[in-house]
Automatic annotation (TrEMBL):
Gene3D superfamilies: 3.40.630.30. GO terms for molecular function: arginyl-tRNA--protein transferase activity; leucyl-tRNA--protein transferase activity. It catalyses: N-terminal L-glutamyl-[protein] + L-leucyl-tRNA(Leu) = N-terminal L-leucyl-L-glutamyl-[protein] + tRNA(Leu) + H(+); N-terminal L-aspartyl-[protein] + L-leucyl-tRNA(Leu) = N-terminal L-leucyl-L-aspartyl-[protein] + tRNA(Leu) + H(+). Keywords: Acyltransferase, Cytoplasm, Transferase. This is Aspartate/glutamate leucyltransferase. One of its GO terms (cellular component) is cytoplasm. It is an enzyme of class 2 (transferase). Belongs to the R-transferase family. Bpt subfamily. Functions in the N-end rule pathway of protein degradation where it conjugates Leu from its aminoacyl-tRNA to the N-termini of proteins containing an N-terminal aspartate or glutamate. Pfam families: ATE_C, ATE_N. It comes from Vreelandella zhuhanensis.
Length: 245
């Protein structure tokens, strides 16, 4: 993403709030989302600035949680130059040495969608992403912008994982990863391995951070994020190292 891109001041942007809806992560709670005016496309400059304030991208929308009386969702990122893989992560790197990685633009490919549909059906059949559809996939994970990319992973001839991510001025932002869930791939922990490869890519590009989206301490499904150390958390407008009690 070019640092010479026009940067519109955040104070000049318009934002909207959704109506309260069921929280996707915590039971018996309602959530509200703050999102950038849909007339404002997620162009470089605007996107860079808002990501530092905890905004994420979904399709063409930039958003962040804005829930009344709840701040459980916290933006987290990995300072990649300080990251050292733990013993389990080193084993995963060894175990997946036969995985090949290819970077592609965030365009629709039937093989990607087939893997996505199988993943959602296996892992998220009880969530709002089910049932998957091509239209849903295109809206969520494809984007005709130079910063939007896909990391495709193959084991032999088999497509085993796809990680959607964006390249920002100050890091990579992990959007979503889906992968093969068959028993033969369980020991590979492909979701964790995808993060390790994104860390490696950020280091190669000399980008300081990998953004992992939101982390909720109470949410079991998000605990994998805290295995990456050190981890920084957005506290108001400042990023600080996360220290777990």
């Amino acid at each position: 993403m070019s640092s010479n891109a026009p940067r519109k001041p955040v104070r000049d942007l318009r934002f909207f709030l959704t109506v309260p809806h069921a929280c996707s992560y915590l039971e018996d709670r309602e959530a509200t989302t703050l999102f950038l005016d849909p007339q404002e496309s997620p162009v470089p400059g605007v996107y860079d600035s808002l990501s530092l304030l905890g905004f994420r991208r979904s399709g063409r929308h930039l958003y962040r949680p804005h829930c009344d009386g709840c701040n459980a969702c916290r933006s987290v990122r990995i300072p990649v130059d300080k990251f050292t893989p733990n013993r389990t992560q080193r084993k995963l790197q060894q175990r997946n040495q036969d995985v090949t990685v290819t970077l592609k633009p965030a365009r629709f490919e039937p093989a990607h969608y087939a893997l996505y549909a199988a993943y959602v059906g296996q892992r998220h059949a009880d969530g709002d992403m089910y049932p998957p559809s091509e239209e849903q996939y295109r809206t969520f994970l494809t984007l005709n912008e130079s910063y939007a990319q896909l990391m495709e992973m193959h084991c032999g001839d088999a497509l085993v994982a796809v990680a959607a991510f964006d390249q920002l001025e100050h890091g990579l932002s992990a959007i979503y990863t889906f992968f093969a869930t068959e028993p033969a791939y369980e020991r590979r922990s492909l979701g964790t391995f995808a993060i390790l490869k994104l860390i490696e890519l950020a280091q190669k590009k000399q980008l300081p951070h990998l953004y992992l989206g939101y982390w909720i301490e109470e949410c079991r499904k998000m605990r994998y994020k805290q295995t990456f150390s050190p981890l920084e958390v957005l506290d108001g407008r400042h990023w600080r190292q996360l220290i777990l009690q």
